[in-house]
Write a structure and sequence with these properties.
The structure is a single chain. The chain has 344 residues and is an alpha/beta fold. The protein is 33% helix and 28% strand. The chain contains ten helices and 15 strands. It has a nine-stranded mixed beta sheet. A six-stranded parallel beta sheet has the order 3-2-1-4-5-6, sandwiched between helices. A hairpin with a 3-residue loop joins strand 11 and strand 12. It is globular. The two termini are 30 Å apart.
Length: 344
């Protein structure tokens, strides 16, 4: 039985409360939230649950094995380090931290403590994304060439973070997951139309060490809601549309090939267009799969799919994109190392 505590029960944290409270083999033993009305609501809905006004009070409890941190992004690094130092396994919402320095510090604390550190990159636990990864692993698409993602809406407009840091962690994590490479450089352009200095729309381009490329478009200032990504391979192409109801994935049997021995243009360039397959992909709530994976890694001592080093890579990508954004789209090279600090 894994005893779980949750820090932060706001708009997203309450989903963690619901998920872990309903899981077998897990006992939700405590929730920390500074808001009295939130604590009272939880106590009414979950009789017997202990609530705490501060995170430190929850972390001081010897009856907690692991914690979920679902607080504002600027608090992730310090709370995560405190939890690891207190001997707790940690699942922290995205992004892992707001700087690569803090992200490395968290990874170092996890390795020193011998505890699981996992980041809530939710799309890596989405059935459709896992299906695309299987297609890549099996070679069904051929060699992955490029990916482009669109995550836009006329929705929640943040005041303390821009659309890059709010929305792009999802797509950056998927790009690394599906293209299976190390990002080498980033360019990003955007605009702040509503609030000075806070970009509402960003177009980011990532290049990977295997020659693959990913383009990411994020915005909270758009006339329609779109959660869509296209993965182009050398043999086939795949589309994942999260707004498409039950038929979220389509596989296009299309490709283009060049013949070096051709004598005419038509022979030189051959475009093949075959069937469109809509596979049956059983959908399971991503948050549930994420929570189960976290608990499985704790029980088995396994490395999470979205472990601390994966979270660090995404933070490095975000940091580089932000630097490019501020430089008017100038390319920014990512460091090739993943050194982490093991200092106290």
């Amino acid at each position: 039985m894994i005893r779980i505590g949750i820090i932060g029960a706001g708009a997203w944290g309450r989903n963690h409360v619901r998920t872990f409270a309903a899981m077998e083999g897990v006992r939700l033993v405590g929730v920390a939230d500074a808001r009295k009305e939130v604590r009272e609501r939880l106590e009414r809905s979950l009789p017997g649950l202990t609530t705490y006004e501060t995170a430190s009070s929850l972390l001081d409890s010897s009856g907690v094995d692991a914690v979920v941190i679902a607080t504002p992004s600027p608090t992730h690094a310090d709370l995560g380090c405190l939890a690891l130092q207190a001997g707790k396994h940690v699942l922290v919402e995205k992004p892992l931290a707001l700087t690569s320095v803090d992200a490395r510090r968290m990874v170092g604390e996890a390795e020193k403590a011998g505890k699981v550190l996992m980041v809530g990159h939710l799309l890596l636990y989405h059935s459709a994304v896992l299906y695309l990864r299987r297609l890549v692993d099996q070679g069904d698409l051929g060699d992955p060439l490029y990916l482009y993602c669109e995550r836009v809406n006329l929705g929640v407009i943040r005041k303390t973070e821009n659309s890059l840091w709010s929305l792009a962690p999802h797509d950056f994590s998927v790009a690394g997951f599906l293209l299976s490479g190390r990002p080498t450089d980033v360019t990003a352009r955007g605009a702040a139309y509503l609030q000075e200095g806070i970009h509402d729309v960003v177009f980011a381009n990532l290049r990977f060490d295997g020659g693959q490329m990913a383009n990411v478009h994020v915005s909270w200032l758009d006339p329609h809601k779109s959660r869509r990504m296209v993965l182009v391979g050398s043999r086939k192409m795949a589309v994942f549309d999260d707004m498409a109801g039950p038929e979220k994935v389509r596989i296009y049997d299309k490709s283009a090939t060049l013949s070096p021995r051709a004598v005419g243009y038509e022979e030189f360039l051959a475009v093949r267009s075959g069937d469109i397959l809509i596979p049956k992909v059983p959908m399971v709530e991503p948050l549930r799969q994420e929570a189960e994976h976290f608990c499985e890694c704790i029980r088995e001592g396994a490395t999470p799919r979205s472990d601390g080093r994966n979270g660090l890579m995404v933070v490095e990508m975000l940091e580089a994109a932000q630097e490019s954004l501020e430089a008017g789209g100038a390319p920014v090279t990512l460091s090739s190392g993943m050194e982490v600090s093991h200092d106290g």
